[in-house]
Amino acid sequence: MLGLFDLSVSGQDAGLPELTIQEAAPQTVDLSENETNSTQSIVAQDGETTAVEEAPKGGEELERGSETIDTNALAEDHLEPRRIRDIDLNLFENRLKLFRGYDDWDNDQIGRWARVDYLISWRRGTRTPVLATTSTPGTPIEDAGVLGLSSTSSLMGSNTLNDDSTPGIRIDFGRWIPGSDAAIGARFYSMFDAGSSHTFDDGIVTRPFFNVDANEAQSLPVNFPGSEAGSLTIDSTAKMIGTDVYVMRPWRSSGIARLNFIAGYQFSRFDESVQISNNSTNLDGRNSIPIGTQLEVTDSFRTKNVFHGGLLGLSSDIDGGDYTVSFLAKVGIGGVDHTIITSGQTIITDPGGGSNTLDGLFVRQSNRGEFKRSRFTAVPEFSVRYTKHLNDSLDFSLGYSIIYWGHAVQPGNQIDSNVDMTNATSQPTMPFEVDHYWAQSLNMGVTFRY
Questions:
Q1: Which residues sit opposite 336 in a β-bridge?
Q2: For residues 217 and 143, what is the distance between their CA atoms, to the nearest angstrom?
Q3: Which of these, 302, 286, 305, 283, lies nearest to 294 by C-alpha position?
Q4: Which of 236, 273, 284, 425 could form a disulfide with 161 if both were Cys (CB 3.0 to 4.6 A apart)?
């Protein structure tokens, strides 16, 4: 051991180095060179001598079979090892920690994490048939808002609802398990309501539909100067939540990059709705309707998509020293429950206060109620994140993520504008149309490591 030896170097008469190693115990080892046979003699205390072949001096060439080795390079490598100050100790330590686990004795502040992200999200909206129309001034009330006429234009229809940008929040927390190289974590996210509200009460406002009994396009007047005074409101909502519970384990590494394997449980759900409501008061007593009669019509379409399944995925981290670039690719595999709930009613109130309740316009006996289906599906997700390490316990990050549903129901796809006023046929129908869905977001947040 280094603490038990005294090391000294002195010159001989021939100018060659002599290395004498003297142990604390009274034993002497004398190392000298024999110039005639290029051997060294090691003389021990007991007087025995061992001959050791001398290594070639710098500048000589060593013949090894057909290979020639320049000893200058060997000497340089021996005399000038890599300097300790050239080693990035922080990077070395980080690499070591990636794969050794986080034992109880490892008290560095990276064993646990909690991340909070602010989201700006966009979603695939729900498309609807034409829900509100208008006509040029002077159009007869019988033709007002009827689709197919040159005088008719759309106030709202064949539009996409619920596709505006909205805020959201995502929380991710977990810890590395002491004594292992695995981590457990959980994540929760919520995308706030992306719904909207549109009200039309100026000029000619009507609700278009196709009358199956008459076999022609017609409209329901809501506001018509001199005949009807009222308004039409179209409300929509869109909310989304999800959570993951997972186990993460380092799988592969290359240089400063690490690949992790992720497995766990995934839940996600999004609810949407479209409601069309109008109220009006008769002003002219047409068609023997008492002046002052009030008409209120409401149709509501709501959808729910609930997913439960297993989670498999990969995440990668590229360590740049004071920053990290991360990628996530995962997929939830399981079952999704689709639910469609419809309701509709018409309330007619005469001037004397009496009222009568009927079916709605787009929701009638043929398509009113709750409808459910379930299926096997996959819900993949991809995200990328840039993280700047501010200090030992605080990070700031920017990123992008997208989640995709291969099967989903949305309310706009369930609206059938073919109406049977007598309820003699199965119209309007419940199409139960299944489509795809996606939600994407930009995010920025902070991570606390402790």
A1: 307, 375
A2: 10
A3: 283
A4: 236
pTM of the model: 0.74
Token digits of residue 210: 């196709």
Domain with CATH 2.40.128 in the chain: 112-449
SS (H, E, C) 84-97: HHHCCHHHHHHHHH
Q: Are 197 and 129 in contact (CB under 8 A)?
A: no
Distance (Å, whole) CA 230 – CA 294: 9
**Count of helices and strands (H, E) across the chain:** 2, 26
Give the list of residues 6+ apart from residue 295 with CB closer than 8 angstroms, or none.
230, 278, 279, 280, 281, 282, 346, 347, 348
Cα 317 to Cα 386: distance, rounded to the nearest angstrom: 10
- Render pLDDT for 245-279 as a digit per residue (tens, 0 to 9): 999 999 988 889 999 999 999 999 999 999 999 99
- What is the CA 37 to chain-centroid distance, rounded? 75
Residues 299-340 have pLDDT tens digits of 999 999 999 999 999 999 999 989 999 999 999 999 999 999
Q: What's the fold here for domain 112-449? A: Lipocalin (2.40.128)
